[in-house]
């Protein structure tokens, strides 16, 4: 495996169990405005990692919802405000983040979420997110394009002080995110939801490593300090 000095993490569905919230909120809207049609993973997988506006536009178009993208975002925001503050860390996340921080490995969050949504989603776990050296959000001025463009990861790299891309390790759960990491010329650990894995089969989308959970990550495989 590659020699890694810096780590960059996506957030939704990777660090936090927020993809479940997105699914629940979208299904509530489909129940009300689209005769209860099922929000399926073949559609959801295309939304993951994209900006809020892009995802909203795809949902409105795919399901022919009787509303504008702005109206859709306004409706979802109201529901999300109640659910996001309860988002929990996924298995293995806190252990790895605290481990890397304790060993002075620079770590960053690079999320498509807006800064305000980031604050909302992380409110239950502020202590853990305060350990990150860099936080890059989708509405930061330097971000021009959403994943699969590499802007988010390149911004994190810049804030790290521009270490070589081959020494950066991206953690992602979305195919769009894997592609973004590869477009940034970085190594990528892909941790897909089992539903996405079922859709993609044996296709690893070029990821350096594919694992089922953050709890399965072995730091020393990438020359990072091992767990004691």
UniProtKB/TrEMBL annotation:
UniProt cross-references to Gene3D superfamilies, sorted A to Z: HAD superfamily/HAD-like (3.40.50.1000), Putative phosphatase, domain 2 (1.10.150.240)
Keywords: Hydrolase, Magnesium, Metal-binding
Superkingdom classification of source: Eukaryota
Database matches in SUPFAM superfamilies: HAD-like
MF terms in GO: metal ion binding; phosphatase activity
Cofactor: Mg(2+)
Entry keyword annotation includes Magnesium: yes
Pfam families listed in its UniProt record: HAD_2
InterPro entries per UniProt: HAD-like_sf (IPR036412), HAD-SF_hydro_IA (IPR006439), HAD_2 (IPR041492), HAD_sf (IPR023214), PGP-like_dom2 (IPR023198)
PANTHER family: 2-DEOXYGLUCOSE-6-PHOSPHATE PHOSPHATASE 2 (PTHR18901), PSEUDOURIDINE-5'-PHOSPHATASE (PTHR18901:SF38)
Name recorded for this polypeptide: Uncharacterized protein
Organism the protein comes from: Mucor lusitanicus CBS 277.49
